[in-house]
Amino acid sequence: MQMFGILEGLEGKNPTENTVVMLIDLKRCIGCFSCETSCKMEHELSIGPRFIRVMQVGPKTVKGRVKNIYVPMLCYHCNPAPCVSPCPTGAIVKRPKDGIVWIEPEKCIGCRQCIQACPYGAIQYDTKTGKAIKCDFCKHRIDYRRKWTRNEIKKVYRYVNRGNNIMPLEFDEKGNVKRDNKGRLIDKEGEAIAGRRLAEKRDTQDEIEYAGLWSACSTKCSTECMIFGYFKDIKKHLKELNNTRDIQRIGSVYYALPKENFPTPRN
To answer: Residue 206: which domain range?
Structure first.
């Protein structure tokens, strides 16, 4: 099965070991739209913009059964990315270390040339800020996946999409991030900071390791149809599915297609 009929020749360069990729199992997706909802909450998006869109194909009668297939679509973080070169200010950057394509809001002038260049409609125009916006694989969550010394942890800042402000977090005497009674992060004034929790923390004697979080859409998927991580860790899942399923790739996103044109019911 060839999805949309546009995949051939658009895969781009193969990802490296440390490239951040996503594997989407279309047979498991039930179209619950929890990925769309969690994405809008994470990035505090207004009505209209959607960094991830679940497209419904069908319904269609297959062997006497009415079936649907749901296809989550997002920015594919192409390599090479066709949206990078048309930008006149260099606001769109592809990070060499993990392949994430993101837009620097300070440099974006809202010319919309990147929107025209993207073949998948992943880049959108934010009428509130007058700038282009898109999925960045929740890089603010990924960037915390490293070890911090106890002195460094006191200088950690969490970026919040609220007027492009950088809001500092408050820490207790043990170096733990303070939260209110609802589990929300708080700043030095005791005010709750909107957004998901920053990270899970594991202490050692000399350092604090923030394992960080993967993308909001994959962590909130109700059927776990999205597997997110570095390519070196996702390869094992690709090998498991490769013998039984048709695997197709666009940029940094892999799709595991059903054997048939439409998914078969589970036993």
So the answer is: 145-212
